[in-house]
Specification:
The chain has about 325 residues and is mainly α. Helices cover about 90% and strands about 0% of the residues. It starts with a helix and ends with a helix.
């Protein structure tokens, strides 16, 4: 009975190690097949990635900075154009004010240094008419004196009236000139400010233009062309990075699968060692009992059954012999 239990124990151990070895070898084969598939996929992706034309710029940060600089360049270019228009408008306004000041100055000069012609003509005529009238009613000397005095009064009155009118208009014109001069000073201040801002915009444009490698002064068409090239480089980088990421992911999967293969191989080696050990223990047990080392446990159990059957038959035969005696 003890031997039978021992054989069954060895049989169970050999069966268990055999099944474990079968599973381990199956897992090892599957892991190696999967490794082969993933390796082929990695090779295909690497070939497709190498076939791509590398983008002109591989650094995404540089392209992002280029986008930002283009936006700044457009902003400065637009600001400079507006400043130039404002400057031209201020210059036109200044020219108009200066022309108005010159015109008013000329008018003031004419009012100061020219007298009207009509007092010198009308007043003497009136004096002559008065003299003629007095000549009819009085003597010629008295008539001449009265006519001369009248002419003098007329001339003095006309000149005084003209001077007062000219003085009043002169003050109005001089006030307008002062107003125009004040406006000119304001315009000059605005022009100086606009000119300073124009120079600042030009310096900023020059710096950005040199950083971007633009050789001539930018305009909308040039900026559009440069921006199109930048976006094309960005699109090429996106495609290149996507393919590169696929290659990296495939390489990671291959590396991960290599770990699975190593573990599967180790498990298979361990299963073989355990089966070999179980068979060696079984073989030692057989040799200790002078039995063939190649005998299988199930064969041994059959032998036990045959021996027990023979024992039973021998006992039965012995019983018959005793009865016969």
């Amino acid at each position: 009975v003890l031997a039978r239990e021992a054989v069954r124990s060895y049989d169970d151990e050999i069966t268990r190690t055999s099944e474990a070895l079968h599973d381990a070898e199956r897992d090892e084969e599957r892991a190696k097949d999967e490794m082969e598939k993933k390796g082929a996929e990695l090779a295909r992706l690497e070939e497709a990635w190498k076939a791509l034309t590398p983008p002109p710029e591989l650094d995404r940060k540089i392209l992002e900075q280029g986008r930002l600089k283009i936006r700044k360049l457009r902003g400065w270019y637009s600001a400079l154009e507006k400043l130039r228009q404002e400057k031209a408008h201020l210059k036109d306004r200044k020219s108009d004010l200066e022309a108005r000041c010159i015109s008013i100055g000329s008018q003031i000069s004419r009012e100061e240094f020219s007298l009207p012609a009509w007092p010198g003509l009308v007043v003497p005529l009136i004096g002559l008419l008065v003299g003629v009238v007095f000549a009819w009613v009085a003597d010629w000397i008295t008539a001449a004196a009265i006519a001369g005095f009248g002419v003098m009064l007329g001339v003095a009155y006309a000149y005084l009236q003209r001077s007062l009118a000219a003085g009043s208009q002169k003050e109005s014109l001089e006030g307008e000139v002062k107003t125009l001069l004040g406006q000119l000073r304001d315009l000059e201040g605005k022009l100086a400010n606009v000119s300073e801002r124009c120079e600042e915009a030009k310096k900023s444009l020059e710096g950005l233009r040199e950083e971007l490698g633009i050789e001539k002064d930018p305009d909308d068409q040039l900026l559009d062309e440069f921006e199109d090239k930048l976006e094309a480089a960005f699109d090429a980088l996106v495609v290149w990075e996507a393919e590169n990421n696929r290659v990296k992911q495939a390489a990671d999967q291959v590396s991960h699968q290599e770990s699975h293969v190593r573990l599967a191989v180790q498990a298979a080696v361990k299963a073989r060692e355990e089966q070999t050990r179980a068979k060696e223990i079984w073989s030692s047990w057989l040799q200790e009992r002078n039995m063939g080392s190649t005998t299988r446990p199930d064969t041994c159990l059959e032998l036990f059954s045959m021996v027990e059957s023979l024992r039973e038959k021998i006992k039965a035969l012995d019983g018959l012999r005793r009865r016969i005696k």
